[in-house]
């Protein structure tokens, strides 16, 4: 593995907690799996992630039927005081309809309660409100088109009650983040990667307000039709030159791009898990950074 010139810190801050900048996104542990398969395969990956030093776990009650959260709670029970577990709100599974928006304040409260039960926690360190105004993913319509201030008021009440530690946002616009700042936002999860940087102004606002930026789809492959960063010829050339994988190049660029970026790459593969954690030691040289910056 090549170690070259562009340095970056290996730790960051999330809701006042120091965390490794490489966290773990749990969604892949349940992706297209049955509850029995999740219970069989997920614990070993979760334990290995913690053994490798990961202390930031990202999940959601609406990943599957809640089984994944229960497995996280059971598997990591002994380590939970040393972990920052983050869960997402704003959607739910409905029989016959699949994943639908669940944006109303009373639904957000119910989701917090469900997360507390399934994860076995007295308090969720951070919850991210996943807005459903724009793609990718579900779009809120009808009574699910809820004012952001009403949602933030509900989450602020839950924070005051001690059921959540801090509030984050996901899939928000610049104006929405500006509107939410007085509520005390600790992180933002938006789509962002070396090929998709439309939200750079939001990232910069987060940086100036000490808010963690936690990009989803960091490899650009979340939905059909989106280009995959690891397939880009320039990325492949850099990876070969530095003796790393194209995915590692893409993730290392994110770490080098801004100090408030925290990553939560997800995988159910032990090898990929180790490769993801190893990104902290990869330093992209000036030639690589220049090439990557010009990809947009």
Polypeptide structure, described:
- This protein has 296 residues and is α/β, with parallel strands linked by helices.
- It has one domain: Alpha-Beta Barrel (TIM Barrel), CATH 3.20.20.100.
- The chain is 36% helix and 15% strand.
- It contains 10 helices and 11 strands.
- It is globular.
- The two termini are 26 Å apart.
Summarize this structure briefly:
By secondary structure, the chain is α/β, with parallel strands linked by helices. 36% of the residues lie in helices and 15% in strands. It has helices at 35-51, 67-75, 105-119, 148-160, 174-180, 200-208, 233-242, 246-257, 270-277, 286-293, and strands spanning 11-14, 17-20, 24-25, 56-60, 84-89, 91-94, 98-101, 126-130, 167-170, 185-189, 212-213.
Descriptive keywords:
alpha/beta, TIM Barrel, seven-stranded parallel β-sheet
């Amino acid at each position: 593995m090549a170690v070259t010139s562009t340095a970056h810190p290996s730790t960051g801050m999330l809701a006042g907690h120091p965390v490794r900048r490489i966290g773990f996104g749990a969604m892949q542990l349940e992706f297209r799996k049955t509850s029995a398969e999740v219970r069989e395969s997920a614990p070993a990956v979760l334990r290995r992630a913690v053994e490798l030093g990961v202390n930031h776990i990202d999940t959601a009650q609406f990943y599957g039927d809640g089984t994944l959260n229960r497995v996280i709670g059971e598997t990591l029970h002994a380590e939970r005081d040393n972990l920052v577990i983050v869960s997402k709100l704003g959607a739910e599974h409905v029989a016959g309809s699949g994943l639908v928006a669940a944006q109303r304040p009373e639904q957000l409260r119910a989701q917090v309660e469900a997360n507390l039960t399934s994860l076995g926690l007295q308090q969720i360190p951070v919850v991210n409100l996943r807005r459903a105004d724009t793609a990718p993913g579900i779009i809120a319509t009808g009574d699910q088109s809820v004012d952001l201030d009403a949602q933030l008021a509900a989450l602020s009440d839950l924070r005051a009650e001690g059921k959540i530690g801090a509030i984050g946002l996901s899939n928000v616009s610049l104006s929405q983040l500006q509107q939410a700042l007085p509520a005390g936002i600790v992180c933002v999860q938006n789509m962002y990667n070396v090929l998709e940087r439309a939200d750079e102004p939001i990232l910069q606002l987060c940086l100036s307000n000490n808010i963690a930026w936690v990009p989803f789809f960091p490899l650009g492959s979340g939905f059909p039709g989106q280009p995959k960063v690891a397939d880009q010829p320039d990325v492949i050339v850099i990876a070969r030159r530095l003796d790393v994988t194209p995915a590692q190049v893409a993730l290392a660029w994110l770490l080098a791009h801004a100090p408030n970026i925290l990553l939560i790459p997800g995988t159910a593969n032990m090898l990929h898990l180790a490769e993801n954690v190893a990104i902290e030691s990869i330093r992209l040289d000036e030639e690589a950074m220049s090439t990557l910056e010009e990809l947009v």
